[in-house]
Amino acid sequence: MHKLLLLSLMTAVWMMLLALQIDGEMAVRTLFEAKRAVNRAAHAGAQQLDQDALAAGILRIDEAAAASAALQYLRVNMRLDASLKPLPGAMLRDPVEIAVLRVVNADTVFPYTYRNETYNYEVTLKRPGVILIARVRYPRGFNVMGPVEWYVKGAAELVPLH
């Protein structure tokens, strides 16, 4: 009888450890997917040239178009609706929050180092670019581990024209 009780207890412990491992692996996968989405969104935003400035020979990012493109790419890559809430079947359950969306433009002296102590982020840009920080919460598969959330950071520069 004692052996049966011990076996049942050990099985429960092993199942909890397995659930913890699976949840941890799913969290890392979610973080990688979110990082790729933020990087793609920042890159899309950084490619939105101001056509009037370009006609004058100035490489400048159109700030409104950059914000729009970055949010559109983030929504598509993370399967979010217009208010950044996950669509049915998306990997997330909670809305994504944009903490920082900053366009660094041609009127800045380059190389430019962006520092944000709040989110512990620093990046140096050599030309105009976009900086994006998004808050992402991991939807735990099991309630074995505590809540997990990240501030996913990305930056991209304007690709030079040759």
Number of helices in the DSSP assignment: 3
Average pLDDT for all residues: 89
Structural class call reads alpha+beta
Give the spatial strand order of the biggest sheet.
Answer: 1-4-5
* Overall body shape: elongated
Q: If you compute it from the alpha carbons, what radius of gyration comes out, rounded to the nearest whole angstrom? A: 21 Å
Detail the poorly predicted runs.
none
Count of DSSP E strands?
5
Quaternary state reads single chain
Reading the helices and strands in chain order gives HHHEEEEE
* Relative helix content: 40-55%
Summarize the biggest pleated sheet.
Answer: 3 strands, antiparallel
Beta-strand residue fraction:
15-25%
User: What is the CA–CA distance across the termini?
Assistant: 79 Å
Lay out the secondary structure.
Blueprint: H1 2-46, H2 51-55, H3 63-78, E1 97-104, E2 112-116, E3 121-125, E4 129-138, E5 148-157
Antiparallel strand pairs: 1-4, 2-3, 4-5
Helix pairs in contact: 1-3
From the structure above, extract its key features:
alpha+beta, 23% strand, 5 strands, 162 residues, two-stranded antiparallel sheet, 41% helix, elongated, 3-stranded antiparallel β-sheet
